[in-house]
Amino acid sequence: MPRSVNHVASRAKRKNILKLTKGNFGARKNVWTVAKNTWEKGLTYAFRDRRNKKRNFRALWIQRINAAARLEGLSYSQLIGTLHKAGIEMNRKVLADLAMNHPEAFKAIVEKAKNA
């Protein structure tokens, strides 16, 4: 008796991956082995870049805080040091948002940290 192969499932799997690679250039979208390799490599990039995104945003927040702090006469590191000494627990995301969108609130926080 010949070996039974589930062609329905394997064809569905191939069809699904080819659907996921839609929009790629050339053979990457319609040749099974190339499309599969492209899709797998894309998952690797997605995993890596979810972590890089956190890195990039933290760097952006620090640049924004530094720019706003220098308008108040402090460097970034001096500002963070005075905030810690004053016991003001704010993360960089919130500080950067205040620096960009609410400069008067950021200025008040800096003054409170300086005076403490």
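Above is the first protein from milestone M3; the second protein from the same milestone is given next.
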Amino acid sequence: MAFGTQDDTDEVMNEINMTPLVDVMLVLLIIFIITVPVMKHSVNIDLPRASNEAQLIKPETLRLSVDASGGYFLNETPVSDEALTVQLKAAAAQNPQPDLHIRGDKAVRYERVAQAMAAAQQAGLRKIGFITEPRT
């Protein structure tokens, strides 16, 4: 019974073990061999060539401004309340329907802007937005 003896097997190895590297490379090779045929279409079809361009029909934008005295301007043209309703109904009937951008003066009563929004909604306009100035 010799407790202090060591075998010669505890020496440091100076070579790189290539077995795990070869195993990983073989697994990758098998994965690529299996996936490459899947990526290729099974039926080769010569598709016809055609040039088509998407037609971008942008709807026009109606600009409704409300000045400080409460007057309405549709596309920079002064309009009365009755004429505004008629023009908004005509715009709602267009295809594609135009966007309505409302610009209200900061000194105008909120009631006038709310009346313009209600008239646009009753006319059937669906896209209504507000235009504001950024703070500086």
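Note on the second protein: Helices lie at 19-39, 81-92, 110-123.
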